[in-house]
Backbone:
């Protein structure tokens, strides 16, 4: 990848993705001309356009701005694409045919990771929450960091933070083995459940992928892992290893956890030091684990106890991660990106932990045909713990349909009677908003399109 000083422009194919848009903003901040294509307009693409980026929604080479088709500038143009873009994309094939330098998003992040003290957050779930909270701890404490986030931080209303600090926080995505491009100083693995088997072929191969990621950590670096990951991956000899969780053997141990009004209170024991009575505004075991991981990373970067304590208490969360959109005594609505059975289990468990025996309705959109095929039983089992479930058709993302795989696979395996498969356009006519107690939208596809309309409808009911 060329240095930003030699670039005339960067073109992003799939610019509306959460990770791609963060990179686009990074290059805009460097004064580079940025343009891109995405299939559909979104709030992210509209924000990029307001920031000076040219975005087209037509997959045709005629939509590419003249600067990026100037053969004389070819060596000063960087093209970045995401694996979600189909190989038959007309724009992608134009740049390939004309001999432009084309990089995956992971390759660009990899180049950035080599030039800073990078903190890489890996795991089948928890990446965005831990990376965003870590970035908040470093920023709020004054240590500072730059950060490429997989979600919109509600503290900073962005998926990109920039500073002159030595630290850069980024997510280490296991899909397509992208995290093998990184060269982190510190790394954390939050979880290692079976996922992306369409890429890895087997769970064992996926775990080897994580072991390979650990080998990418710099010799002077450190590795932090959730206690549930211990024994599943191979840690390079000589690499300092730290474990977090609830067990006495953990290097960063969560203790004395309890509900405290609308918040949660717990302590973190780290060797001879104990951070007592930390207050955190998000419920559940999963969220405490995420807070412990981010706090441990903060401590590794030199953040003191007061810095950790104040950052945890002021963390507002991430859009689409336990994102409380409506909270009234009579009605609650939470939106979440969870799309793997274990992720959904942790999310629902946190909701139950907080709201007790209230009636919970879930709207779930399966993400990928392959994941639905591989985990239909797991999805059914966890959705059965809700009181009412609406299942949307599968969001295919990058995949072609698989014969016999549909949302009905999940519904047929469920024991609960109060379940149905519904088209997204029919959700509003299916739900009785006047009877909603606790409502959840769950999924990583375009189910987020429902969030604003649902929030608005529930708020309108309050005003009647």
Residues:
């Amino acid at each position: 990848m060329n240095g930003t000083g030699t670039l005339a422009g960067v073109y992003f194919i799939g610019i509306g993705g959460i990770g791609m848009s963060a990179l686009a903003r990074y290059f805009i901040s460097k004064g580079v001309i940025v343009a891109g294509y995405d299939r559909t307009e979104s709030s992210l693409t509209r924000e990029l356009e307001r920031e000076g980026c040219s975005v087209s929604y037509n997959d045709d080479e005629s939509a590419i701005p003249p600067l990026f088709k100037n053969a004389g500038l070819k060596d000063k143009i960087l093209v970045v694409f995401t694996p979600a873009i189909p190989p038959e994309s007309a724009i992608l094939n134009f740049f390939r045919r004309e001999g432009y330098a084309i990089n995956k998003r992971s390759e660009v992040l990899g180049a950035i990771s080599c030039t800073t003290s990078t903190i890489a957050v890996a795991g089948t779930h928890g990446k965005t929450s831990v990376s965003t909270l870590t970035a908040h701890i470093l920023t709020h404490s004054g240590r500072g960091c730059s950060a490429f986030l997989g979600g919109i931080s509600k503290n900073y209303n962005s998926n990109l933070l920039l500073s002159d600090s030595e630290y850069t926080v980024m997510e280490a995505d296991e899909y397509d083995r992208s995290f093998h491009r990184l060269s982190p100083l510190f790394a954390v693995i939050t979880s290692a459940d079976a996922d992306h088997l369409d890429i890895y072929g087997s769970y064992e191969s996926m775990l080897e992928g994580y072991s390979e990621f650990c080998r990418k950590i710099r010799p002077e670096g450190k590795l932090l892992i959730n206690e549930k990951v211990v024994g599943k991956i191979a840690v390079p000899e000589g690499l300092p290893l730290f474990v977090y969780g609830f067990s006495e053997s953990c290097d960063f141990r969560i203790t004395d956890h309890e509900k405290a009004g609308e918040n949660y209170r717990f302590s973190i024991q780290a060797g001879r030091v104990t951070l007592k009575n930390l207050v955190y505004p998000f419920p559940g075991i999963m969220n405490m684990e995420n807070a412990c991981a981010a706090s441990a990373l903060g401590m590794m970067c030199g953040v003191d106890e007061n810095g950790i304590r104040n950052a945890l208490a002021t963390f507002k969360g991430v859009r689409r991660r336990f994102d409380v959109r409506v909270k009234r005594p009579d009605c609650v609505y939470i939106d979440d990106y969870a799309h793997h059975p274990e992720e959904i289990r942790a999310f629902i468990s946190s909701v139950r932990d907080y709201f007790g025996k209230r009636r919970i309705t879930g709207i779930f959109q399966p993400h990928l045909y392959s994941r639905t095929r591989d985990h239909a039983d797991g999805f059914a089992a966890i959705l059965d713990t809700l009181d009412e479930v609406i299942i949307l058709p599968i969001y295919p993302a990058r995949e072609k349909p698989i014969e016999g795989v549909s949302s009905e696979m999940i519904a047929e395996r469920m024991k609960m009677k109060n379940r149905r498969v519904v088209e997204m356009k029919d959700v509003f006519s299916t739900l009785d908003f006047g009877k909603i107690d606790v409502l959840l939208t769950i999924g990583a596809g375009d189910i987020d399109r429902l969030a604003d309309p649902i929030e608005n409808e529930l708020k309108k009911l309050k005003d009647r």
Summary: The mean pLDDT is 94. The domain at 114-314 is CATH 3.40.1190.10 (UDP-N-acetylmuramoyl-L-alanine:D-glutamate ligase). The chain is about 30% helix and 25% strand. The first strand starts at residue 9 and ends at 13.
